[in-house]
Amino acid sequence: MAQQNFLTALPVYNEVRHIGDVLQKVTRFSTNILVVDDGSTDGTAEVLQTFPNVRVIRHPENRGYGAALRTAFSYAIDQGYEVLVTIDCDGQHEPHRIPEFVAACTPEVDVVSGSRYLKRFPGDSEPPPDRRRINEVITAELNRRLGLHLTDAFCGFKAYRTEALRKLDLTENGYAMPIEFWVQAVKHGLRIIEIPVPLIYLEEERAFGGALDQAETRLAVYRAVLERSLQRAGLADFSKTSLI
């Protein structure tokens, strides 16, 4: 099979500690790289200037994780890439797995989603208990409401066929955007597979910001986004298995 024309995109906000190391690794496995700098104020922009072959789109102010992903989606579509790979820049994803995601994103697959819970890898981390619990709850609700069989609703390591991305109508700006994505994916009949990735949590504090740092508030927000997304998509009572 011919090599697919793909872009690797990294949504970034205040990642000065990681961006240089992560990009050095990504450049070994991807020729075309986009960083969406979502209004960083910590020196991330200065580090990005040392990577002249990396395309950077900067949001003048912080808009949110979902907004950064939507910018990456639009760029990949506009530039005519066949496949878009997204990878987070916090050290939790291993860039050497990018070719595996691209290879799995065949013409018969629209979305390849990483899962930290499909299998155990040597050296896997133990996730923060509240994050694991919320992931389990929301993943189960998505599966029940949409007829999916996901094991990890929130992994940011993915590959998408850009023709599939053209179909989506995404509006969520924040960390709940992946929930809206799954609703839209089912609405448009996208073909989804999961592949396993290691579970890596670094020994540093990570915050969602504001009220979302409270686990119960975050869960309530995610559920509200799910209900809103189902209503917008006309899928409030929908049930269909879309995982292939």
Automatic annotation (TrEMBL):
Which residues span the membrane?
Answer: none
**Top-level taxon:** Bacteria
InterPro entries (alphabetical): Glyco_trans_2-like, Glycosyltransferase_2, Nucleotide-diphossugar_trans
The Glycosyltransferase 2-like domain sits at: 10-168
Q: Name one Pfam family in it.
A: Glycos_transf_2
Keyword Transferase listed? The answer is yes
Per its record, what are the GO molecular function terms? transferase activity
- Keywords associated with the record: Transferase
Name-wise, this protein is: Glycosyl transferase, family 2
Organism, as annotated:
Thermogutta terrifontis
What does the record give as the organism's lineage? Bacteria, Pseudomonadati, Planctomycetota, Planctomycetia, Pirellulales
